[in-house]
């Protein structure tokens, strides 16, 4: 048995996917179907996404939330998909500074590694800037340059901690306008399907075809 525990914000939670509830639920359904077909190698997927959450919120809940979902033999995977709310502007400054963002992720990653989990760090999706500006108030306004800056830090963390890095930014840049909903930030069903296919390929690779 394996547990895949997915931490993140509303994108992880599956907001705006009116077909299958987001990439995590798509992964969960895939794993259930595979198990029912083969009757072995069960993989349980946990959706730990909370809408609007930053890495500060993650840090407060992470230890308890992770511990209750780990299986004892250490066959666990943890994914982190954060940054979209951390970079959002509050009084013309990022809600969570780059330094705090780094510190919060390091705290959670270190604990996950101590618990002998396999860790995947997922970077921030692109946004459609003109739509983002039109539909969001200042608190939720996001800038492309901040996405690049925070994504660079995510890549640095993955190298520093020798953990897996999943680049969804590049994955979602292709035909970008068709992959997002009205706000230019949240993927639509087509976008979640693309994310799901990418993450399934990276995480499950040879284990589930």
What is shown here, in short?
The protein is an alpha/beta fold and 209 residues long. It has 8 helices and 7 strands, in the order βααβαβββαβααβαα. Helix content is 46%, strand content 15%.
Explain the overall architecture.
This protein has one domain (2-203): Rossmann fold, CATH 3.40.50. Helices cover 46% and strands 15% of the residues. It has helices at 10-13, 23-38, 55-67, 98-114, 129-135, 144-161, 168-173, 189-204; strands at residues 2-8, 43-49, 76-81, 89-90, 93-94, 118-122, 164-166. It has a five-stranded parallel beta sheet, sandwiched between helices. A two-stranded antiparallel ribbon has the order 4-5. The mean pLDDT is 93.
Mean pLDDT: 93
Please tally the helical runs, counting DSSP H or I stretches of 4 or more residues.
8
- At CATH level 2, the architecture is 3-Layer(aba) Sandwich
**How many distinct domains?**
1
CATH fold description: Rossmann fold
Based on DSSP secondary structure assignment, what is the total number of beta strands?
Answer: 7
Structural class: alpha/beta
Secondary-structure element string? EHHEHEEEHEHHEHH
- Strand fraction equals 15-25%
Distance between the termini: 17 Å
Sheet with most strands: strand arrangement:
2-1-3-6-7
CATH class: Alpha Beta
Sheet with the most strands, sense and barrel status: 5 strands, parallel
Uncertain residue segments: none
CATH superfamily: SGNH hydrolase
Shape: globular
């Amino acid at each position: 048995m394996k547990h895949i525990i997915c931490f993140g914000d509303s994108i992880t939670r599956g907001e705006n996917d009116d077909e299958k509830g987001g990439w995590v639920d798509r992964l969960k359904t895939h794993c259930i179907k595979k198990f029912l077909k083969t009757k072995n190698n069960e993989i349980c997927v946990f959706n730990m996404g909370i809408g609007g959450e930053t890495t500060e919120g993650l840090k407060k809940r992470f230890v308890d939330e992770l511990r209750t979902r780990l299986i004892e033999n250490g066959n666990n995977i943890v994914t982190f998909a954060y940054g979209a709310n951390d970079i959002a502007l509050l009084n013309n400054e990022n809600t969570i500074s780059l330094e705090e963002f780094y510190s919060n992720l390091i705290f959670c990653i270190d604990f996950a590694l101590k618990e002998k989990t396999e860790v995947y760090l997922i970077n921030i999706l692109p946004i459609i800037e003109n739509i983002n500006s039109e539909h969001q108030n200042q608190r939720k306004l996001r800038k492309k340059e901040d996405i690049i800056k925070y994504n660079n830090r995510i890549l640095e963390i993955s190298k520093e901690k020798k953990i897996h890095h999943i680049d969804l930014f590049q994955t979602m840049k292709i035909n970008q306008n068709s992959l997002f909903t009205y706000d230019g930030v949240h993927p639509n069903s087509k976008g979640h399907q693309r994310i799901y296919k990418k993450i399934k390929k990276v995480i499950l690779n040879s284990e589930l075809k």
